[in-house]
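Purpose: get a first structural picture of the assembly so the mutagenesis plan has something to point at.
Setup: three entries, given in the order below. No constraints added.
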Amino acid sequence: MQLQNSSILPEQASNFAGGVDALTLYILGTSLFFALLVVVLVVIFSLKYRRKKQTEIGVPVHGSVPLEIVWTLIPLVLAMVMFAWGAVIYMDFRRAPSDTLDVYVIGKQWMWKLQHTDGRREINELHVPVGRNVKLIMASEDVIHDFSIPNFRIKMDVVPGRYTTLWFRATKTGRYHFYCSQYCGTSHALMTGWVTVMEPAEYAAWLSGGAQDANPAGAGEKLFTQYSCNTCHLPTGKGRGPSLVGLYGSKVKLADGTTVQADDAYVRESILSPKAKIVAGYQPLMPSFQGLVTEEQVLSLTAYIKSLQAPAPASEAPAEAPHMGKK
Amino acid sequence: MSATESRPAEQFPEKHYLNADYGIRSWLLTTDHKRIALLYLVSVTFFFFIGGIFAGMIRLHLLTPKGALVSPEVYNRLFTMHGVAMIFFFLIPAIPAVLGNFFMPLMIGAKDLAFPKINLLSWYLYMIGGGLALFSFMSGGLDTGWTFYTPLSSVYSNSAVAPAVLGIFINGFSSILTGLNFLVTVHTMRAPGMTWFRLPMFVWANYATSIIMILGTPVVATTLALAGMERLFHLGFFNPQLGGDPVLFQHLFWFYSHPAVYIMILPAMGVISEIIPTFSRKPLFGYKVMAAASLAIAVIGFLVWAHHMFVAGQSTYAALAFSFLTMLVAVPSAIKTFNWTATMYRGSISFETPMIYAFGFLGLFLVGGLTGLFLGTLGVDIHVHDTYFIVAHFHYIMVGGAVMGYMGGLHYWWPKISGRMYPDTLARFSAVVLFIGFNLTFFPQFLMGYAGMPRRYHSYPPEFQVLNILSTAGATVLAVGYILPIIYLLWSLRYGPVAGRNPWPSTGLEWQTDSPPPTENFHVTPTVTWEAYDFENRPDLGLDKPLKTDDSGRGHD
Amino acid sequence: MHRTGELYGHFETLEQQRESASLGMWIFLITEVMFFGGIFLAYTVNRHANPVAFAMGSNTLDLKLGAFNTGVLLASSFTMAMAVWAGHTGKQKLITLFLILTLLLGGIFLGVKTVEYAAKFEHHLVPGSSFHIPAEDVSAAAAKADPDFAAHAQLFFSLYFGMTGLHALHMVVGAGLLIWLIRQSMQGRFTAKYNTPVEMVGLYWHFVDIVWIYLFPLLYLIDRRHK
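Result (structure tokens, whole complex):
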């Protein structure tokens, strides 16, 4: 941990850090070259061509087309290299791999609430195992926040009304600062915390210790009944709404003929504005739960729906088998 | 037009714009662009010092990690009001409304701007807007950040957002009308012989700036009006709880506010393009390329706004497109820098105060521009976005670039504005102080930012303290660099030696008339027969003939 | 700046003065396009997000009054064009006549708008604390899966009042300009040689007219089929 002054670059602790720093050094090198070039030329010209006689004038050079072309093309090419290199890193940054350990993150004025898939909750602390892909699925309860981990060289805004995600693979154990880096009001500067990167065994021990809340999927299951989602979303698919078993991650055919990938954003949208995407073969009957469920409850419901991966065994009573989401 | 001798003692003109009329009414109801420019000069200086006081308090507060001076509520107000005062009421009007207003008509040989009354109206709108902003500062302050991001500004903030937003809205119309006035003036008011490609680069720069003003400002006016209405009437344009979209606000806001950066820097580039040829006694290198680069910056500048939103959750492909376009806008800036440098090649260079400021501009703009590459590159932006790195970057552009340009222009044209010279040695000294102070203040912020210190933090982890102390120390030096010019410029008004028509000397039309100029600018409408920065064909300047252009060796030594 | 006849002192010729005024007005209209453009964008995005509320809100508007007003405004553009033509040909009486007609038509438009606004006030459809949507509408909308219908409908009416209000404000400014022109015209100041003010106000008036040509279908017509 610690952002030391000992070296110019802060400690690198994620899969992104090396790439970002390498690109930074490339841009820095290019910049220094041009800055020094201009400064050296200005100094040389200043010394060599300083005015020696009050009435003297310069040589009327008006310009040079070849030179203009040269100093248009060279910066253009160098800038394009920067763009392309940066784009490669960014695409990797925006596209999380599929085998991630998910952590739900809620930002609110002025704290971070985090919850692991097995239910362990944290406030302004995040524990992750080293070497494992981790995905933060983030939402805000009020204004725009931003989850930023400088030692990992990444950050992402947390926007009310939608999900954003941030993924990384910690490469080094230790404790690293994270910050809210989108100004969010009075105590913006206190909305910080620590990421603790642990050896996998240590992490497992940490996970099993401590007070355990119901895991999000369990909480989601309760909500599913509480909001009577289970009355329409029968696992058989014969309810007024489609079955949700095996929904997550599948392709859903919509009434307008298109298909969508059932991901977190889709499930969330289906809960909050069901009418946006109607599943083929069903009526737009489901009411919106906007304002009825909190962001946290949406996350729980999503976790529950995710857990419904295997088709329900026949022995389970159909009426009991819960689903939700779509109409 | 009488030829200016090399520099014998010239008489102060008997009748000029400053003594053409007396009394407060003659100023508040004037339609003379030169007097309106002075009204602006006084008012933007006022806002500069208001913003400067806030900046000083911010730097003092950040001396210690826990914050040395004020509560978080007050700190948030300080940086917000610093931003609002500096950006909307100092940087955006500074060069166009003061130097542009004063010199554009003189440089193209016109008697005034095309619409003198609208010009005065612009100043009044600016004052009303500024008054409302001050009212907001004093009645609860403003803590939204100068960017007014929703829903923080429209729902959650409990500060005086509405008057500030209204003030910026009204001030926007001042900007629009100034841009409109400039565009029409350049099109229709040029003196005989002043063709488009004889225009001084400062006029080109202001022309490009005006395009941004008229196209961008209405959009930010609408946007802030919507955010203000959302706040007052609990509407939901940008509030997700009522079906709105907070990111839409960012798109609309940056559609103006990114080009607004070019409103600040383009005129400064124009000033530098005047100063370097004058003090190198050489034509500007690549005149047409320079003009085209100004227009290119204005146009491409409109296509890069979403590079402020790479981590705001916009689509990946949008981010790619905006990063690409951002890299393109770097090219005309690079071209300009190379052309300025090349202008000095084989010149006859002297080092009066404006040239020192031009060197300062060049150095700081280089750093500011080049660090922009880090931010425009997607892979690095995800790390440095919203840290002190960007704070340092935009201060290098907006203070290092725009304010250095403004100070350079003020010193370059001061003899024309006032008719008198300031003490050159002291002025050069203060330019150097400014340069050193600036770098001390802001360079450490690049390091803090890359190490991860987020912006807008009233307290910070202790490991950043050393750099913060350096920065605060630099700010005190910087303050000296700003206060000195005020003192000696005011001193020069009374005690400075008479400057004469063309003290440097320079080729522009503005130097052909009296210093200070008469109300109608020129006693006789001038006719232009020379190219811009054409020292070799100007016997009236009393300079030598040029050395040969084609000698293979060097013309000097 | 002092003035000699119609020529302001800082211009060299009347032609230069006319050209400046004309260019200035066109540039001003460009800024107006950008100004309305921001609001049109906000309308588009919000309508896309809340189709149900926008459709139902649109259906509460009075199509007949809207259509009538469109006709009135088109007629006023015609009389304005005639006034400009009369200016070019130097028919001083006709200039005054057509300007007065334009002012009358503009007044009718604003009058009808007032009637429409008053109806909205009566039905509590003005955004703010007294905004109220009848319960049956809300439940009808809830069936269409928009439980926040009241908020979204308020959004529609905010945009409705924002857009038409801004337009009406431009009409009021236009009416003021017309009154100023009529006074000068009655003094016989406009001739075939000098009629720039008439032409400039004409440009402005046509622009305001065109804005309405976009507002009418967007607010009144586009969602009628959802009834």
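Confidence is low (pLDDT under 50) at residues 1-7, 550-557 of chain B.
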